[in-house]
Amino acid sequence: MRDFAQLIKNLDSTNSTNRKVALLSTYFREAEDPDKLWTIALLSHRRPKRPVNTTRLREWASAIASIPLWLFEESYHIVGDLAETIALVIPQEKSSNKKSLHQRMQDLVALRGKPEREQRSYLETAWLEFDHYERFAFTKLLTGGFRIGISQKLMTRALAKATGQEEDVLAYQLMGGWTPATTTFEKLIYSGQEAAEKSKPYPFYLAYPLEDPPEELGDPKAWFAEYKWDGIRAQLVCRDQQVFVWSRGEELVTDKFPELEQLAASIPDGTVIDGELLVRKGKEIGSFNDLQKRLGRKTVSKKLLTENPVFIKAYDLLEWKGQDIRDRSMEERRSQLEHLFPLHHQDSERLELSPLLPFKTWKEVSEYRAHAREEQSEGLMLKRRSAPYGVGRKKGDWWKWKVDPLTIDAVLTYAMRGHGRRTNLFTDYTFALWHEGELTTFAKAYSGLSDAEFREVDRFVKKNTTDRFGPVRQVKPELVFEIAFEGIAPSSRHKSGVAVRFPRMLRWRKDKKPEEANTLDDLKAFL
């Protein structure tokens, strides 16, 4: 446990990706196999169910610290993180812990369902055996994930460096519903070379944002134009009569979208398609909000499959009959992709060809962009006809020309402290719009202001707090901000009845009074 806590501390102290990879790879070389297995599970969101609720944790921690619960709660509101608060208020600072990470995790798994008296006794003993950071890391295992900037892709990269395995092989191995109770480190890491090889995708080719007028690209005859679909970039790999789906983050997500596995019966072996993963709503494309309902699910219910079925909009062909064709021109690859589609007409609900837009002038392209949202699109993709399929993000051949964001003026109503260097400032805000004479919340945002503006809003929050709800402060509704967002969709989960995508603060409207902010009806007019 001591080594795991030190790893978390070191990871949290750096923003360098290379440094994080080095720290993780060292840990994966030196730790015991059961600890390594649990670390992989915890960093890939396989934390077991919480054995004790946070109300009990707060009560028991305040009792050990010999402080009244109200004082603990006040401290929690200031610190903003329950695990950090518990680590600070319990006075023991010298470690006497001798248990490893996997032993502690086995204890926590066994703790679930035990009588409250046994749970309290175990946690009080454990807290007093830890030093400050061990206690913080241990309590995080109880309360939630670590916000230390470790993606599964980064962890896979570190594992590859530590074990000598290929990243693609490890990504394949880490997919699925395994737990530390169902496998071992040896089996998880080293038993899938052959199976992983046939699922291997190609590196994704990425587009640059187009900031200059399209006329700067030259003759429009040299370019393809198509819609930029608002989903998840994916590669569909079909080999040995099996289908594998990879996200742009180089994660194997086949098990999250089981309906796509049926494509194996109709797509020829040795085919790799680049496209966009989308949700279908009747005959229309669903919103990104619909797609989010399919993400991060450990199990996919029949209801979810029925209400939010996914499909792929195909726009490029990277492998055909087992041959890598990325060095061929976009025009050749596109032609071959179009010839593929009659082969799978029975699967048109799961795989569609992304249409090319006919045009002769850049003015026509601009008109397509102006109406892109009507097609459930983020804008346009412009691709040079003669370009091969590259690796990574390169300027010149692929451009994304997104539509301008939607904007609305809203009133700041709630605030929370930020994270990292903003821990001591209120920088996470909730915004509201007018509806029937009252303010109704509709979005949260925490980016878009300068450091000086954040400090100014922080001073306002501290002077104008009207109520507190845990770490959240309600403030006088006096500040107006222009909120930008990329899309909007109906949502039964939000009080406003809508969900906006990628909200951020475009500017502080100091020229506007709160009563001049927009209404909820103004927002719904964007639907």
Determine the CATH superfamily of the largest domain: DNA ligase/mRNA capping enzyme
Cα distance, first to last residue?
51 Å
Shape: globular
CATH names the topology of the largest domain as D-amino Acid Aminotransferase, Chain A, domain 1
Uncertain stretches of 5 or more adjacent residues: none
The proportion of residues in beta strands is 15-25%
- Which bin fits the share of residues in helices? 25-40%
Number of strands: 22
The number of helical segments is: 19
Biggest β-sheet: count, sense, barrel? 7 strands, mixed
Identify the quaternary structure here. single chain
The structure class reads alpha+beta
Notes on the protein architecture:
The protein is built from 19 helices and 22 strands. With 527 residues, the protein is of the alpha+beta class. It folds into three domains: 2-143, DNA ligase, ATP-dependent, N-terminal domain (DNA ligase i, domain 1), CATH 1.10.3260; 205-402, 2-Layer Sandwich (D-amino Acid Aminotransferase, Chain A, domain 1), CATH 3.30.470.30; 406-524, Nucleic acid-binding proteins (OB fold (Dihydrolipoamide Acetyltransferase, E2P), Beta Barrel). The strands form five sheets. Strands 4, 5, 6, 7, 8, 9 and 10 form a seven-stranded mixed beta sheet that branches. Strands 14, 15, 16, 17, 18, 19 and 22 form a seven-stranded antiparallel beta sheet that branches. A four-stranded mixed beta sheet has the order 2-13-11-3, with helices on one face. Helix 5 crosses helix 6 (82-89). The radius of gyration is 26 Å and the shape is globular.
